[in-house]
Design the sequence.
């Protein structure tokens, strides 16, 4: 019984360390959600063609920054904060574009 608890605790500890080092997947999830919001906005007519193109360009820039951050194998806290700021800005831009009342082309 003690052996089972020990193995379980070791696995949880290793899993926690591995999870803590993989910061960039959070960026991937947010970016997927943002791209879905852009697509949904275009389909529903909340976004014009020009607005959705600009928002998709912003998403490409975020992805490039993420690849640069991951290039050396780890994403530092500073790099992650930078990515978070970029995604926060993109999130605001998506919301503003979807709620600005512009008619689609």
Sequence:
């Amino acid at each position: 019984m003690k052996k089972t608890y020990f193995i379980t605790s070791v696995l949880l500890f290793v899993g926690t360390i591995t999870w803590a080092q993989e910061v960039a997947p959070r960026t991937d999830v947010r970016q997927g959600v943002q791209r879905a919001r852009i697509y949904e906005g275009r389909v529903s007519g909340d976004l014009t063609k020009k607005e959705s193109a600009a928002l998709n360009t912003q998403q490409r820039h975020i992805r490039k920054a993420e690849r640069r951050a991951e290039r050396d194998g780890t994403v530092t806290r500073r790099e992650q904060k930078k990515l978070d700021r970029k995604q926060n800005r993109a999130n605001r831009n998506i919301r503003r574009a979807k709620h600005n009342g512009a008619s689609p082309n």
About this structure: The radius of gyration is 19 Å. The longest helix spans residues 49-70.
